[in-house]
């Protein structure tokens, strides 16, 4: 069996960098079991030339397999281990646009881009379509989208991206960013809608919908992506998105430090469980059967078992296998972040 060494992408966040090895091992194990038929094993770490590598054994990895592994959130370069030598391995990524789509925005409370990609990956790999990572155009909903970090990663993968966010300033900031970025990069796009949404002569929210494609040829052929962002409360998501039209729901819940969670009954609260109890049933109805929901949150303000119970009460099946329980990591002194993933039964 061939052995490989994975060089970890340097993280700009030093606290996250300390967790990157363990997170990568868990993510790699999830990739192996969900998308590569269990053909990855013997995971370990090894220091070569002063750099730490995640090493693993791969059984007959194909070009398609390498294209899947190329999307590991912290993967920088892959090598085949031949004796004491490292032989570079060609792999490819799904990335459709320049990477500054993910990195150029800077603001307090922004989620680390590497973690955003990991959260999207492990959610997708829990769905019924894990084997279609490189071929299916998924529809991703971030029901707490803020300024669009998850939406941008979904677009980077070539997916359709939808989001809902209560804070009008965040939605306006994201609209301004993405429209400016598309123009500066000369990405072929068309704004389908931008402005208030009215029902029975009342404004119930604001919405921006943009059709885009990485090349003019794809746009002309109708091979377009859709970005759809709504300014409204997440508990009203079903008013703007039809049931069973979303493949993946991916959310980084407010941590109660830079942000707060909001519910209709309690208003601003630092308890994400209140938000989950009210919103998870709405999110679950938007998922297609076989789809998956992934959420991260601060365990200092809500325990894992309680969060899992809220998802189960919404009719979802929590994925509790070992690698999914190994995604807990420190963000800073006041935030210990964990990840829960659940499926909607087919």
TrEMBL record:
Lineage of producing organism? Bacteria, Bacillati, Actinomycetota, Actinomycetes, Micromonosporales
Protein name (Swiss-Prot/TrEMBL): Ribosomal RNA large subunit methyltransferase K/L-like methyltransferase domain-containing protein
Record Pfam families: UPF0020
Q: InterPro entries from the xrefs?
A: RlmKL-like_Mtase (IPR000241), SAM-dependent_MTases_sf (IPR029063)
Q: Where is the Ribosomal RNA large subunit methyltransferase K/L-like methyltransferase domain?
A: 139-276
